[in-house]
Amino acid sequence: MLPHERSLVNELKNKPFAIVGVNSDPQDKLRTLINNKRVTWPCFFDGGDPQGPIASKWNVSSWPTIYLIDKKGIIRFKDHYLDEKLLRQLLEDGTASASRPAIDDGVIKSKGTQSGK
């Protein structure tokens, strides 16, 4: 998945698009992943536990979980794969957001939790 994420970051660098990673692995493993796999987007440590504060707040039950969030902060998609068709539609419609979600004590704060699914 990382090569594809990297290609999306490059392809969509001038679009309202951002990737934010959340990782439940131990910190040393996360640092190695970021360095060895050339992760260039923000990646947050979730306490080294699959039920860390971010995963718990966002109801993550398995990894990876992908969210597409529009510019209003509404979750438009949640699943274990990326719906690129929907991503591109959100970008084309001008409803995607380049802003990153607010982080407070390691927990991503969402403005909305509605699903467009």
Describe the structure.
The protein has a two-stranded parallel sheet with strand order 1-2. The two termini are 23 Å apart. β5 and β6 form a beta hairpin. The protein has one domain: Glutaredoxin (3-Layer(aba) Sandwich). It has four helices and six strands. With 117 residues, the chain is an alpha+beta fold. The model is unreliable at 99-117 (pLDDT under 50). It has helices at 2-11, 27-36, 53-57, 84-93, and strands at residues 21-23, 43-45, 66-69, 75-79, 102-104, 107-109.
Question: Keywords for this structure?
Answer:
single chain, 117 residues, alpha+beta, Glutaredoxin, two-stranded parallel ribbon, two-stranded antiparallel sheet
Topology:
Layout: H1 2-11, E1 21-23, H2 27-36, E2 43-45, H3 53-57, E3 66-69, E4 75-79, H4 84-93, E5 102-104, E6 107-109
Parallel strand pairs: 1-2
Antiparallel strand pairs: 3-4, 5-6
Q: In a few lines, what is going on in this structure?
A:
This protein is an alpha+beta fold and 117 residues long.
Task: Give the helix tally.
Answer: 4
**CATH homologous superfamily (4th level) name:** Glutaredoxin
Percentage of residues in strands: 15-25%
CATH fold node name: Glutaredoxin
What letter string, H or E per element, gives the SSE order? HEHEHEEHEE
Radius of gyration using CA atoms only: 14 Å
- Helical coverage, percent range: 25-40%
Mean pLDDT: 80
Question: pLDDT under 50 segments (min length 5)?
Answer: 99-117
Largest sheet: 2 strands, parallel
